Amino acid sequence: MNKYLQDLIKLSKFDTAISMFEPKIENEKAKLATFVETAATIKASINSIYLEVDDVKSKRTKNNIHLAELKTKLENIAKKNKDVHNEKELKALQLEEEIAKEQIAFANEEIDRLDNLAKNKEATLKELQEKLAAEEEDIKEIQVAVDNTIEEINKERNVVYQERSELLEKFDNKILTFYEKIKRWAKDSAVVPVKKQACYGCFMKINDKTYAEVIKAEEIINCPHCGRILYKEAEELEA
């Protein structure tokens, strides 16, 4: 195989490998982000329930104040009963007393309802806090695993960068410029194999003459359809 073509294939494979490192790192970060997002959602729910509990307690306090006012009102009605002069005044006081008692009953029911509501919300709050604690422990473990994986990926990337640099030191400048021009638009598919007599960049079939030249590999051959650099993989040649 043409030496320049061999170098181009190596360079292309290095560039493809390099372009895959960042997605691998992002994929690892995404694993952690999922747990962090879940923890953030739980925290938001906890904060929301804290506000709801505060609101319930505030309503209970208002009901307690109202209940105290109603009890005072009943005491005043009881005192007024001693000074009743006629049946009309008595009936008015009895009606006022009945309404006050109904309001007291309603206030007590409302306080019971609010107490139950607060109890349920505090139980939910406890569950969420336990869930958050477990989630944060998972995050710590995953953070360590992700950091270790990313460190390994960076080590691999450094090795590839080093090997690529060593290759470029002995690379022909004209060939490199030629490759980079194609790479600008073809990205990581600047150099592609031919399989089943088709360019694996544009997937168009190449003619017999071009295919024969690719198999010989004596020259750098471009796809007549898309312009990518073509080569035949050794495994296929042996087959």
Describe this protein's structure:
This protein is rod-shaped. The longest helix is centred in the middle third of the chain and has 83 residues. The protein has 239 residues and is mainly alpha-helical. It has two domains: 152 residues, Orthogonal Bundle (Helix Hairpins); 66 residues, no CATH class.
Shape: rod-shaped
Distance between the termini: 17 Å
Mean pLDDT: 92
Q: Widest sheet: strand order?
A: 2-1-4-3
Class computed from helices, strands and strand pairing: mainly alpha
What's the CATH architecture name of the largest domain? Orthogonal Bundle
Q: Which CATH class of the largest domain?
A: Mainly Alpha
How many E-type strands?
A: 4
Radius of gyration: 40 Å
Low-confidence stretches: none
Keywords: Coiled coil
InterPro entries: CT398_CC_hairpin, Oxidative_Scav/Glycosyltrans, Zf-RING_7
Protein name: Zinc ribbon domain-containing protein (DUF164 domain)
Organism: Arcobacter ellisii
